Amino acid sequence: MNDDQQSLAADLDRLASEHTRLAAHAARLAARVRQLAPVGDALHDLRTGEFLTTSRAALICEVTDQCIRDWIAHAASIGQPIAEKGATWIVSKSRLLAYVEEHCGGKPARVKAENLFKEYWPKWSQAPEVRAATKERVAS
User: Fold this and answer.
1) Does the pLDDT of residue 135 top 70, yes or no?
2) Which one is predicted more confidently, 87 or 33?
3) Which pLDDT tens digit goes with each residue over 37-59?
4) Separation CA 47–CA 51 (nearest Å)
5) Residues 50, 39: contact at Cβ < 8 Å?
6) Apex 73 CA angle, 70 and 74, nearest 5
7) With contact defined as beta carbons under 8 Å apart, do 84 and 99 qualify?
8) What pLDDT was estimated at residue 75?
9) CA-CA distances (angstroms) from residue 20 to 16, 24, 100?
10) CA distances from 74 to 49, 71, 97, 107, 136 (A)
């Protein structure tokens, strides 16, 4: 084999190796996409706690309700709203967490809020009658 052939063979080996690496990466990404909820599925968002009251947002961020309302105003003023006002404020959990990470303590603050949400969500997601029945069993 001459030098040109050896060089070409080495290039082909590198391409084959890169192809294998990219194929594995593509498979991992495909698996992640399959786990995503449908975009715009409000019921899914409701069931997974995407919508928070200001009180619950304050609890997971360890701040006051007023602080959350201040963050809502600030986020809106910079064109990155985190909540919508109806009869009461409805805070987007994902937007709140992004805001916390960008403006209120970085990744550690976001992770802390995410972990607190994970701690509280099982209780928050129960129907009121289930919570009442649980309280009755504990009291007995």
Assistant:
1) no
2) 87
3) 566 788 888 888 999 999 999 99
4) 9
5) no
6) 85
7) no
8) 97
9) 6, 6, 38
10) 23, 5, 14, 19, 43
Distance of CA 31 to the CA centre of its chain: 17
Q: Yes or no: say if 31 and 40 are a contact pair by the CB < 8 Å rule.
A: no
Residue 5 confidence (pLDDT):
87
**Relative orientation angle of helices 106-124 and 54-61, to the nearest 10 degrees:** 130
- Structure confidence by residue, pLDDT tens digits, 57-105: 999 999 999 999 999 999 999 999 999 999 999 999 999 999 999 999 9
Instruction: Decide if 91 contacts 50 (C-beta within 8 A).
Output: no
CB-based contact 120:62 (threshold 8 Å): no
What residue type is 7 in one-letter code? S
The token duo for 24 is 């594995």
Residue whose pair of structure tokens reads 């309280």 in the numeric block: 135
